[in-house]
Amino acid sequence: MPGWRRAYPYRSASAQECAARQNATETRADHGVLFVEDNEDVREAVGALLEGEGLEVLACASGEIAQDEFAKGDFRLLVTDVSLPSMSGVELARRLLRHRPDLWVVFLSGHALQDHVTSLGERVRFVLKPFTPEVLHDVIQETRACVG
Question: pTM of the prediction?
Answer without folding.
Answer: 0.78
